[in-house]
Amino acid sequence: MDSETPKQINQFNVLPVSPKLGSQNLKKFFYFAQLILRIVVIASALTGAITMTSSDQSVSFFGIVLKARYTYSSAFRYKVVVDSVVSGLSVLSLVLVISLNRPKSNPKNYFYLFLLDLVSLLLLLSGCSAATAIGFVGRYGQAKTGWVAICDRVAKFCDKIIVSIASSYLAVAGLLVLTVLSAHKLKSESFLEVI
């Protein structure tokens, strides 16, 4: 049976795959996935910040003016700051990814990229959580504490808040994938150095 195996391989013209070729394709895929995901995170976080800052609305009821602005809520202000900081950190990480793609770069520097992604993920998740909690109260109210829903009166304001929060959650998902990719890259590089 052992003598038949080479004949079968030659019969189907199967060539052995070079492991170096497969690793080069994997490195290219990893590099381009990092670039695309980081650009998506930057765009999503900036969209979240810009949409939140443009979400003000004024309505009047029987001569009383009701103003809804993101600055009235500390959670919304915090989310704008976090979105801006994460956008800046993501631009920095984009530069770091490009510099790590050079042939003479030190693979140990992926640890800093991993830390940058992890810190960005945690910051953005905290900002999104705070804004989601206040947005939920604004949309549905809370009868036990006497907080009334305001979204039936300032619907345009609430719609922009929802778009801002959803955009930031898209950035959270991107950062989660980037954190996993950075950890995987760090682990695979460390494994190769040991061998």
Fold and architecture overview:
The protein has 195 residues and is mainly alpha-helical. It has a single domain (24-193), classed as Four Helix Bundle (Hemerythrin (Met), subunit A), CATH 1.20.120. The chain is 72% helix and 5% strand. A two-stranded antiparallel sheet has the order 1-2. Strand 1 and strand 2 form a beta hairpin. It is elongated and about 70 Å long. The relative contact order is 0.15. Residues 191-195 have low confidence and may be disordered. Homodimer and heterodimers. Belongs to the Casparian strip membrane proteins (CASP) family. It is a multi-pass membrane protein.
Bin the strand percentage. Answer: 5-15%
Mean pLDDT: 82
Give Rg in angstroms: 25 Å
CATH topology: Four Helix Bundle (Hemerythrin (Met), subunit A)
Number of helices: 5
The run of helices and strands is HHEEHHH
User: Poorly predicted ranges (pLDDT <50, ≥5 residues)?
Assistant: 191-195
| Broad CATH class | Mainly Alpha
| Strand order in the sheet with the most strands | 1-2
How many angstroms does the end-to-end distance come to? 34 Å
Structural classification: mainly alpha
What is the CATH architecture descriptor? Up-down Bundle
Largest sheet, in brief, is:
2 strands, antiparallel
Membrane topology: Multi-pass membrane protein
Subunit structure: Homodimer and heterodimers.
Main location: membrane
Organism: Handroanthus impetiginosus
List the helices and strands and how they pair.
Blueprint: H1 4-11, H2 19-53, E1 57-61, E2 64-68, H3 74-100, H4 110-140, H5 155-194
Antiparallel strand pairs: 1-2
